[in-house]
Amino acid sequence: MKRCPNCNEYLSDEAIQCKTCLEYLDGKVRVDERCECGNLVAKLTENTVEIKCRRCKRIRIIPMDQLAERDRILLERAPREKIASAAETADRS
User: What CA–CA distances, in Å, run from 4 to 16, 18, 37, 73?
Assistant: First the structure.
């Protein structure tokens, strides 16, 4: 077992990212998201997000403008109370 230098959480010896604070243990800034075990989950590029399927290993490429459109639609559908409580929670952090 090893400990995270940022939050002091106990981690497995193989971990490359802290499961609590989500900081990478080597201090590098990454443009991809990885699981605690090190497996690639998503890769961010300038114009896309590339997501890898865990089962079939195919990579799905999603354009950033499509993500922005999805976010806009979800925010329009969300009840105003949920948005307000989320904003309050973020302000407290």
Answer: 10, 6, 15, 38
| Lookup: tokens for 54 | 């865990």
Backbone angles phi, psi at 72, to 5 degrees: -60, -45
pLDDT, tens only, 60-71: 787 888 777 777
- Would you state the structure tokens that stand for residue 20, as one six-digit string? 């609590």
For the whole model, what pTM was predicted?
A: 0.40
| C-alpha torsion sign, points 14, 44, 26, 20 | negative
CA distance 20 to 2: 14
Q: Taking the mean position of all CA atoms in its chain, how far away is CA 1?
A: 24
Residue type, 53: C
Residue reference for tokens 């230098």: 5
- Of the candidates 16, 71, 13, the residue with the CA atom closest to the CA atom of residue 38: 16
